[in-house]
Amino acid sequence: MKQGVYEQQKELILLAERLVLATLGFDLNVHLPYKPLVEAIKKLKVAQNALAQFAWNFVNDGLRTSLCLQFKPHHIAAGAIFLAAKFQKVELPSDWEKVWWQEFHVTPRQLEGWCLFFPILVV
């Protein structure tokens, strides 16, 4: 009897694995947002290291979610910078805003939407 339960569970797990692989298009090469984040922080030229650290932490926390599967790496980096600037109450330089939209191909509405996907500890 126990063997039958084991076989059923095994089949359910295999079915779930195939479903996940099909959903991912069998592409297991996940590109992480660290490189676009570092490049953007360098271009930002904001004197506050806290902004960079906050953005880095948001990206790290995002790895515990499906964020990297749902969005492109440079979009995640843009969302992390945007969210870090909001948390730190830092205004990004005006010349950066021009580069911002061109570099990441994002809109303010998209940035606001992505912020909902970042895991944030609210105390």
TrEMBL record:
Ranges of residues in domain Cyclin-like: 35-120
Domain of life, per lineage: Eukaryota
Keyword Cell division in annotation: yes
InterPro entries according to UniProt: Cyclin-like_dom, Cyclin-like_sf, Cyclin/Ssn8
GO BP term (any one): cell division
Keywords: Cell cycle, Cell division
GO molecular function terms listed in the Swiss-Prot or TrEMBL record: cyclin-dependent protein serine/threonine kinase regulator activity
One Pfam family this sequence matches: CycT2-like_C
Protein's name according to its UniProt entry: Cyclin-T1-5
Organism: Trifolium medium
Source lineage: Eukaryota, Viridiplantae, Streptophyta, Embryophyta, Tracheophyta
